[in-house]
Amino acid sequence: MESDEEEKQMFVELMQEEMAAAAQDDEHMMILGCLASMYAGLATGRRGGSARVRRKCKPRQRMEGYCMLYADYFADNPLHGESVFRHRFEQKAISANCKCTVAMRMLAYGAPGDTADDYLRMAESTALDCFYRFCRAVIAVFGDYYLRSPTVEDTERILATNEARVTKPVLYSKWLGSCSYWVRIALNIEGVEYEYRAVAWNDPDYEKINPIKYVPALQDGDILVSDSLAIILYLEDKYPQHPLLPQGLKRKALNLQIANIVCSSIQPLQCYAAVGLVNGKLGSDESLQIVHHYIDKGFNAIEKLLEGCDTKFATGDEVQLADVFLAPQIHAGVTRFQIDMSNYPHLERFYKAYMEIPAFQVACPENQPDAPSS
Ligand SMILES: N[C@@H](CCC(=O)N[C@@H](CS)C(=O)NCC(=O)O)C(=O)O
C-alpha cells in the first residue's frame, strides 16, 4: 500500500463489503469491529515520532492477511481445527533440546543468559527461566541421592581411591625367599613401581598383613593380596598390557603347570629342608640331599615337558609365567644348593637368557635392600 489514503480507502471498501454481506453472526460483527478500529487509528493520524519521510513500503495486504488468519484459526467455525493450529504454531516454540542446551551451557561455561541469543535464538529472560527450571528438575530427580551428606562408605571409598592414586603398592618381601623373587620379577615386567618393605624374621605385626605370616604380600590401595601366585595373577588382571599367560589353551596350561611345579612341588619341600637345617633337626648334608632330591625331581619333570623346545624362553620367545617361576628356582639351585645345571640343558639355556633381562636382574636377592652387604 503506497499511502495512508490508499489504506483508508481499502478499509472503507472492506467495511462496505462486510456490511453488504448477509452474515449477522458474531464472527461477522467482530471483523467489522476490527476494521472500524483500524480505520479509526489511521484517521486520527500518527502521534509524535520523527518527521515523516516517504519510504517505499511493500504492499503487504495486512488487512486481508488479518482476515485470513482470523478465518483460518480463530473464527467460531475456523477452517482448520485445533490440531492443525497446534502443529503449525506450537512447533515454532523453543524446543526442549534448546532449553536444556542453554541451561547446560550456562552451567558448564558459566555463560550469562544473554549469550544464548545468537546461537539458540533465545532471549535472556527465557534463557534464565530455562536455567532455573532445568536446575529445579535436576534437584527434584537426583537431589535425594547427590545432595545428601556423604555416608561412612562414601567417605571410605573416596579416601581409598585417593590413597591408591597417590600411593605405590607395597611389597612385603624378604630378600632371599624365592616367593618374593617371583613377585618382584612380575612387578618389574609389568613396570609397576612399588615400595619394598622388608619383613623381619618373626615380626609380630606382620601377622596383621598375612595371617599365615609368609612373605610375600602386596598392599595395593585397599587391596591386600598374599601368596605369590595369587599376587601374580592379580597383577596379570590389573595390567593386561603385559600378559604373562598366553592365549592358547595348551600353552597357557603348560605355563601354569611349570609355575605350579616350582611353587608347590619344589619350593615348599626345599624350604622345609632348609628350615630343618636352621632348627638343627637336620644335618647340612641331610638337608642338602633333600633339597637336591626335590629340585631334581621337579627339574626333570620340566625338562620332559619341554622336550624338543627350541625357543628362547620356556614357552616361547617372550617371557611368560613359567619363566617368572623358573628363574628364581634355578638361581637358588645354582647359588645356594650347588645344583649342576648341565643336567637340565633347557633350563640351563633359559637361565642364561633370564640373567640378561633387567627385570630379572633387578629382582635378584642380592640386589634387595635387606640383602646382607657382603
Ligand atoms: N605359598 C606361599 C608360600 C610362601 C613362603 O613359603 N614364603 C617363605 C619364603 S619363600 C616364607 O615366608 N617362609 C617363612 C619365613 O620366612 O618366615 C607363597 O607362594 O607365597
Sum up the structure in keywords:
single chain; 374 residues; mainly alpha; Glutaredoxin; 4 domains; four-stranded mixed beta sheet; 4 strands; 60% helix; binds glutathione; glutathione transferase activity; Glutathione-S-Trfase_C-like
What does this structure look like?
It is a single chain. The chain contains 16 helices and 4 strands. The protein folds into 4 domains: 4-46 and 54-90, no CATH class; 96-146; 167-238, Glutaredoxin (3-Layer(aba) Sandwich); 249-367, Glutathione S-transferase Yfyf (Class Pi), Chain A, domain 2. The chain has helices at residues 4-20, 26-43, 62-74, 82-90, 96-109, 116-120, 124-146, 152-166, 178-190, 206-209, 228-238, 249-278, 284-305, 321-335, 345-354, 358-363; strands spanning 170-173, 195-198, 217-220, 223-226. 60% of the residues lie in helices and 4% in strands. Helix 9 (178-190) runs parallel beside helix 11 and helix 12 (249-278) runs antiparallel to helix 13 (284-305). The chain has a 4-stranded mixed sheet, covered by helices on one side. With 374 residues, it is mainly α. Helix 9 links the parallel strand 1 and strand 2 (195-198). It is rod-shaped, with a radius of gyration of 44 Å. Residues 174, 177-179, 214-216, 227-229, 263, 271 line the site of glutathione.
Would you identify the regions where 5 or more consecutive residues have pLDDT less than 50? 47-51
Quote the beta fraction: under 5%
The count of strands amounts to 4
Question: Strands across the major sheet, in which order?
Answer: 2-1-3-4
CATH class of the largest domain: Mainly Alpha
Please give the share of residues in helix: 55-70%
H-E string: HHHHHHHHEHEHEEHHHHHH
**CATH fold-type name of the largest domain:** Glutathione S-transferase Yfyf (Class Pi), Chain A, domain 2
Protein name: Glutathione transferase
GO molecular function: glutathione transferase activity; maleylacetoacetate isomerase activity
Domain GST N-terminal: 167-243
Family: Belongs to the GST superfamily. Zeta family.
